[in-house]
Structure formats: C-alpha cells, structure tokens
Amino acid sequence: MAETAKDAGTAKDAARHSVWLEGKARRRGRGGKQPSGLDLDRITEVTVRLLDAEGLTKFSMRRLAAELNVTAMSVYWYVDTKDDLLELALDRVYGELEELPDPRDEGADWREQLRTLATVYRRLLVRHAWLSPLAGTYLNLGPNSLRFSRTVQETVLRTGLPARGITGAISAVFQFVYGYGTIEGHFFTRVADTGLTPDEYFQHALSASAEAPQTAEIVAQSKNLMAARGGDTVAEMMDRDFTFALDLLVAGIEAMVKRG
User: Fold this and answer.
1) Most Cβ neighbours (<10 Å): which of 45, 91, 100, 198?
2) Which of 41, 69, 94 is the last residue of a domain?
3) Structure letter (DSSP) for residue 212
4) Helix pair angle (61-68, 40-54), 10° resolution
C-alpha cells in the first residue's frame, strides 16, 4: 500500500529522536525581540524546580511561564515543544552526577566503582521522582547522560566478562537500580503528601495491613523476615536491602567471570 503524505508525517512524528540530535539543545532564541532576562538555561533550571516541587503530571508550559513571569509564547522562543524541554531537564539532573569513579584507574576495584555508580544513580532517582518515567521515554543522549553511560560501560568492561555479557551485566545492575530507585522515590513522594514522616507512614501502613482480613495472614508470615531484615528506620531498611541486592549482583558477575 502506498504511503500518503499524512502517513509519512505521522511516522516522522512517531520516530522523533532527540532534541540533542536535532540541533536545538543550544538554541539561544529565535531572533527578534526576546523576553528580557530569559534564556534556555534559566528555563531549564526552573523546569527542574517545578518538576521536583509539583511532579510530572502537573507540569505544563503555561505553569512554567507563570513561574517565569512571562507568557507561554515567550518560552517557545527557546524550545519547540514540551518534549524538548523535558528532555533538557532530564539531562540537567544527570549533570548532578559530578564525582563519578574513573574506570581508567587500573588500581581501583571495579566492584567498588560499580557500587558507587549504582548508589549515585539510585539517589538521583529518589531525589527527582519524575526522572524515571522520562528516562524510559527519551533516548538520554544529552552530554551528562552520555558521560554517566560511558562511565558505567567502561567500568563493566573491567570486570573480565566476555564481550557478549557486558550489556547483560549492565542491564542486570542498572535496571535493578532503576526499579528500586523508582519505587523508593514514589514512596517518599507519597509520604510527603501525607504530612507524616517515612517511619510514621510505614508503621501506620503496617498496622493497618496487620488488622485487615485480606492482608493479616501474609503480614504475620512476614514477621520473622522483617525482624531479620534489621534496621530501625525505613531509610536503614531500604539501604540494607539495596546493599544486599547489589552484593548479589556483583557476586553474580564474579561467578560468571570465573565460568568464562
């Protein structure tokens, strides 16, 4: 069947790649009379601040313009679409990962470097709960994201795994971190909405679950596991689980290296 012009346009929109590949990431404005005191850097900075404060679902170009005290059309001097702006904001927060381990340091232990990379990525996901859905939507081709990805790749290359296993090892570790950090970030966002502390919220939820007929049995069955888990606070429990799970993954990589 022949493709119509409309079909071709729709396909082009669907196959949109990245603001970083389209030469728009460093735009300084379209020319002509531009809003005073406004530039792409400030727009991106305020976008991140709004996303942190109000979340992804409440973000809009109109809300951003109000925060900047300009019209919505003024923002479009610098970005074509909301997608472009969100992609810029995504890479902006990846820029917070400044002190990454150097995989070229031959004296460094790749295990500790991998743990460091996993830990800083987890913290980033928790600090910016809106990051995870965007990281799964866009290609993450900004300079800060690429720097992190390159460091991860070069670190895993030092493990001694055969080339065929490198991407699988990266997926095992960092998709685990992505999932863990996403759930943890959502938990703390939910807690903040209630006005309770994380520990108060956890105890309230645990008590309610222990009393509800449909969940009481599994809560009782899990009592010994929860006690063995250790940790006096929610943060400590989450840290213990994360550390142990990460140790399992590192041990798995070591085992696969020995297997050859």
Assistant:
1) 91
2) 94
3) S
4) 110
pLDDT at 36: 61
The pTM for the full model equals 0.87
- Nearest-angstrom CA–CA distance, 155 and 111: 9
Report how far residue 205's alpha carbon sits from residue 46's, in angstroms, rounded to the nearest whole number: 35
Residues 116 and 90 in one domain: no
- 112 versus 207: the higher-pLDDT residue is 112
Q: Token pair of 182, please?
A: 């996403």
Helix or strand holding residue 194 (H, E): helix 163-194
Residues 131 and 244 grouped into a single domain: yes
Helix (H, G, I), strand (E, B) or coil at 227: helix
Per the structure, the complete domain to which residue 24 belongs is given by 17-94
Q: What is the pLDDT of residue 34?
A: 59
At residue 19's C-alpha, the angle toward residues 128 and 134, to 5°, is 25
pLDDT tens-digit series, residues 135-161: 989 989 999 999 999 999 999 999 999
Give the pLDDT of residue 5. Answer: 40
Q: How far apart are CA 107 and CA 114, in angstroms?
A: 14
